Automatic annotation (TrEMBL):
Source organism (scientific name): Rubrivirga litoralis
Region (Disordered): 98-128
InterPro entries: RmlC-like_jellyroll (IPR014710), RmlC_Cupin_sf (IPR011051)
Protein's name according to its UniProt entry: Cupin domain-containing protein
């Protein structure tokens, strides 16, 4: 361990709803880390902020070739592919593909339908199923603030 450690920057993509009701995606970075032991006497590690909110954890397997229809996330939620690849297209036309370990935070509730689009659509990328871990918050979305975990 270095005598002068630098706090990590963990990237994630935030799918959010702007002030006009359009879903958009922005690259963000978690930066609030403290070097400390998670359970002394264990060696220190970089620990992120704890979020005390009721949560639901679920796993989903999307078959190869699966494409969903336009919809909003049912709740603010972290989505982490464990295997395979998964893509998300927001109403502004931006499309991002996520592979194992890449992080997306879906918080596009409250979009306004435009041209048959509301929220986002998603699907599997490649020729294998996408296994996703989803952590849903019990709380409401955080207005239209992108990158709220920076």
């Amino acid at each position: 361990m270095s005598d002068d450690p630098t706090s990590p920057r963990v990237p994630y993509w935030h799918l959010y709803t702007d002030d006009d009701g359009v879903s958009r995606q922005r690259l963000c970075h978690m930066t609030a880390f403290e070097l400390e032991s998670i359970s002394p006497p264990a060696d220190p590690q970089w620990l992120g902020e704890k979020h005390h909110d009721g949560m639901t954890v679920l796993f989903t397997v999307q078959p190869a070739g699966w494409t969903g229809t336009w919809h909003e996330n049912p709740a603010p939620q972290w989505i982490v592919p464990l295997s395979g690849a998964w893509w998300v297209e927001s109403m502004d036309g931006e499309r991002r593909t996520f592979g194992p370990g890449e992080i997306s935070f879906g918080e596009d509730q409250g979009t306004v339908e435009r041209g048959g689009k509301s929220g986002h659509r998603s699907g599997t990328a490649g020729d294998e199923p996408a296994v996703l871990m989803i952590v849903q918050f019990d709380s409401e979305r955080d207005a239209t603030t992108p990158c709220r975990f920076d």
